[in-house]
């Protein structure tokens, strides 16, 4: 009965965390706030590392640069990551004698980085489940950013095209759109 209550509490806590992270994402907070919430939930070091090894977001008690440099080094060397005890998509890392978990963040089929966390008081199971949540929200955030960037580029292209090729009324509307989106029309512009 105690084990069942413990599992129920774990699922309930994860459900609350998921709800909290979803609200944060919808409110437009950045990845740093999301990582901070996950770190607070796990009570351990948590980070997001870009594919090139640079730090995207970090929260925890440890020195960011020193720890993430060692974690990134482990992730860059496939022979130093993985474990027969970890799920296939989770990398178990031993960094300076401490257990870490890392999971790849993939957006539209492109690996864009890693979510990493030290195994803390909550144990391996809750760490891996929470890391999965972080990966999902990091991917959603990145997808949202990509979509916004594409929409902005399409708006800029359409505005510049209307400025160059349209009649006077469409050109006047394009000038207004350019002002609304703060498009700098000084200097050379390139259309694709």
Question: What does this 3D model show about the protein?
Answer:
With 192 residues, this protein is of the alpha+beta class. Helix content is 56%, strand content 18%. The protein contains 5 helices and 5 strands, in the order ααββαβββαα. It has helices at residues 2-27, 31-42, 64-76, 123-165, 168-180; strands spanning 46-50, 55-59, 90-95, 98-107, 110-118. The chain has a 5-stranded antiparallel sheet. α1 runs antiparallel to α2 (31-42), α1 packs parallel to α4 and α2 (31-42) runs antiparallel to α4 (123-165). 26% of the residues are buried. Mean pLDDT is 83; it is low at 83-88.
Q: How does the overall form come out from the CA principal axes?
A: elongated
Helix content: 55-70%
Count of discrete alpha- or pi-helical segments spanning 4 or more residues = 5
Strand order of the largest sheet: 2-1-5-4-3
Secondary-structure-based class equals: alpha+beta
End-to-end Cα distance, whole Å, is 65 Å
Mean model confidence by pLDDT: 83
Largest sheet: 5 strands, antiparallel
Order of helices and strands: HHEEHEEEHH
Q: Find the count of extended strands (DSSP E, 2+ residues).
A: 5
Spans with pLDDT under 50 lasting ≥5 residues?
83-88
Note the beta-strand portion.
15-25%
- The whole-angstrom Rg is 22 Å
List the helices and strands and how they pair.
Layout: H1 2-27, H2 31-42, E1 46-50, E2 55-59, H3 64-76, E3 90-95, E4 98-107, E5 110-118, H4 123-165, H5 168-180
Antiparallel strand pairs: 1-2, 1-5, 3-4, 4-5
Helix pairs in contact: 1-2, 1-4, 2-4, 4-5
């Amino acid at each position: 009965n105690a084990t069942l209550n413990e599992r129920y509490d774990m699922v309930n806590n994860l459900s609350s965390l998921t709800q909290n992270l979803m609200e944060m994402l919808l409110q437009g907070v950045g990845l740093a706030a999301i990582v901070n919430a996950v770190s607070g939930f796990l009570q351990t070091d948590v980070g997001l590392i870009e594919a090139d090894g640079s730090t995207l977001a970090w929260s925890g008690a440890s020195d960011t640069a020193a720890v993430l440099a060692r974690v990134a080094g482990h992730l860059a060397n496939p022979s130093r990551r993985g474990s027969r005890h970890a799920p296939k998509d989770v990398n178990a890392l031993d960094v300076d004698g401490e257990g870490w978990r890392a999971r790849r963040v993939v957006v539209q089929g492109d690996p864009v980085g890693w979510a990493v966390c030290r195994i803390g008081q909550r144990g391996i199971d809750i760490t891996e489940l929470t890391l999965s949540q972080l990966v999902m929200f990091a991917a959603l955030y990145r997808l949202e950013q990509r979509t916004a960037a594409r929409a902005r580029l399409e708006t800029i292209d359409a505005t510049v095209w209307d400025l160059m090729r349209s009649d006077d009324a469409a050109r006047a509307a394009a000038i207004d759109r350019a002002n609304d989106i703060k498009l700098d029309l000084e200097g050379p512009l390139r259309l694709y």
